[in-house]
């Protein structure tokens, strides 16, 4: 049986809390059955509001949400078959791990022997077999979040929602939990809608990422597409590191455009979101796409002055003043360390036009 490509469907959803300001605007988002989709964006961009509407704790102001092809506006939260892990959605502190996990099954009137089987299975999934009798207060933060993940999965939900579930954990633990959750998703194939403001987390875990800003989805793409082909300057700047140049299109063809920068220099770019001469644009270039001492055939070659050099273990970050931008970042792998990388030196830098993407300037 083929999977429902619109297993979760936000259809023209608006949300206003005060009847005036829309904090979610015309959200159209389809999530396939079994997919791991992350809503990524800065604080206040409307991510939690979207999850709350899907969970049933908030109602859309306009539009409809569908789950497995059924509109869910009139279905109360506990009947939607949705599991949840929230940073502030704590375990029941007075119940053991077993009781916490059995709870969602008891309310669904599952028989005791089946509850025991399901609890065993889900505990082994989160590597906590043997912890049944512990109280939450006797577990580390990471273990508690694993129990929370187990509790969201134990009743075989249609969808699991996770809102910044790793936000309270320290960096190393957070990274290992990212892989754990990703592997659990891969092994059971449940549909996951995940919320984070951490781009690394989103890139690591997701099949697709919806980048939110100001209540609107800016781009919905796979992690590599989002990184390699951001559609606008917000996405380009939010995901990964980015060098930018502002200017005006002076000559555009299908594959290339010439952009005259505010500094007066010209660069050759890839016309992603510009069509005609005279348009303002923001050109975006990933630091690792710029190289030192470019070959003659590269269509962008410019001299820059080194402003700062920072050693980063596996690579060196070099900040340049290039074409009037003194925040231009280069990343040089330390296997190719060079003597001439010193503050004050001038170096030649180049990149291919297709790597410098001419986008919509920021609104
Ligand atoms: P995010 O999760 O991306 O940080 P939220 O969905 O929490 O964003 O918030 C989006 C906007 O809606 C913010 O401006 C926030 O202040 C507002 N907001 C969120 N929840 C409520 C609420 N219960 N009542 C009124 N305004 C809210
Ligand atoms: Mg939030």
Essential attributes:
8 helices; single chain; OB fold (Dihydrolipoamide Acetyltransferase, E2P); 23% helix; alpha+beta; 2 domains; six-stranded mixed sheet; binds adenosine-5'-diphosphate; 363 residues; binds magnesium ion; Rossmann fold; five-stranded mixed barrel
What would you say this structure looks like, in words?
By secondary structure, the protein is of the alpha+beta class. It has two domains: 8-233, Rossmann fold (3-Layer(aba) Sandwich); 241-293 and 300-359, Nucleic acid-binding proteins (OB fold (Dihydrolipoamide Acetyltransferase, E2P)). The protein is 23% helix and 35% strand. It has helices at residues 47-55, 97-106, 112-125, 141-153, 171-188, 199-205, 223-228, 233-238; strands at 8-16, 22-31, 36-40, 62-67, 70-71, 82-86, 159-163, 191-196, 208-213, 216-221, 243-252, 257-261, 266-271, 280-285, 291-292, 300-311, 315-322, 325-333, 346-351, 357-359. The strands form four sheets. It has a six-stranded mixed beta sheet with strand order 6-7-8-3-9-10, with helices on both faces. Strands 11-12-13-20-14 form a five-stranded mixed barrel. The longest helix has 18 residues, at 171-188. The model has no long low-confidence stretch (mean pLDDT 93). Bound molecules: adenosine-5'-diphosphate and magnesium ion.
């Amino acid at each position: 049986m083929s999977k429902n490509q619109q297993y979760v469907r936000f259809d023209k959803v608006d949300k206003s809390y005060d009847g005036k300001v829309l904090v979610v605007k015309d959200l159209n988002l389809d999530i396939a059955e079994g997919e791991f989709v992350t809503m990524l964006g800065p604080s206040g961009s409307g991510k939690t509001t979207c999850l709350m509407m899907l969970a049933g704790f908030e109602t859309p102001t306009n539009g409809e949400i569908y789950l497995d092809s059924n509109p869910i506006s009139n279905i109360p939260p506990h009947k939607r078959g949705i599991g949840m892990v929230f940073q502030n959605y704590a375990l029941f502190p007075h119940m053991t791990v077993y009781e916490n996990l059995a709870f969602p099954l008891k309310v669904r009137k599952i028989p005791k022997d089946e509850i025991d089987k399901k609890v065993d299975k889900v505990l082994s999934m989160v590597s906590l077999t043997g912890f049944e009798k512990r109280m939450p207060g006797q577990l580390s933060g990471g273990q508690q979040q694993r129990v929370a993940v187990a509790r969201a999965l134990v009743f075989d939900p249609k969808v699991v929602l996770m809102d910044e579930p790793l936000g309270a954990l320290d960096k190393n633990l957070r990274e290992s939990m990212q892989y754990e959750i990703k592997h659990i998703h891969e092994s059971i194939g449940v549909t996951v809608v995940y919320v984070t403001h951490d781009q690394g987390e989103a890139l690591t875990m997701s099949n697709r990422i919806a980048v939110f800003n100001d209540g609107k989805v800016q781009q919905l793409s796979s992690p590599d597409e989002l990184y390699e082909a951001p559609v606008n300057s917000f996405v380009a700047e939010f995901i990964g590191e980015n060098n930018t140049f502002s200017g005006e299109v002076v000559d555009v063809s299908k594959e290339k455009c010439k952009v005259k920068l505010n500094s007066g220099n010209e660069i050759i770019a890839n016309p992603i979101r510009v069509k005609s001469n005279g348009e303002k644009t923001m050109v975006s270039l990933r630091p690792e796409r710029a190289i030192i001492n470019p070959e003659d055939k590269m269509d962008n070659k410019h001299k820059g002055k080194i402003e700062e050099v920072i050693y980063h273990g596996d690579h060196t970050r070099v900040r340049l003043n290039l074409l009037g931008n003194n925040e231009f970042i280069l990343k040089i792998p330390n296997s190719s360390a060079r003597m001439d990388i010193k503050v004050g030196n001038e170096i030649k830098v180049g990149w291919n036009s297709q790597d410098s993407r001419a986008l919509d300037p920021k609104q």
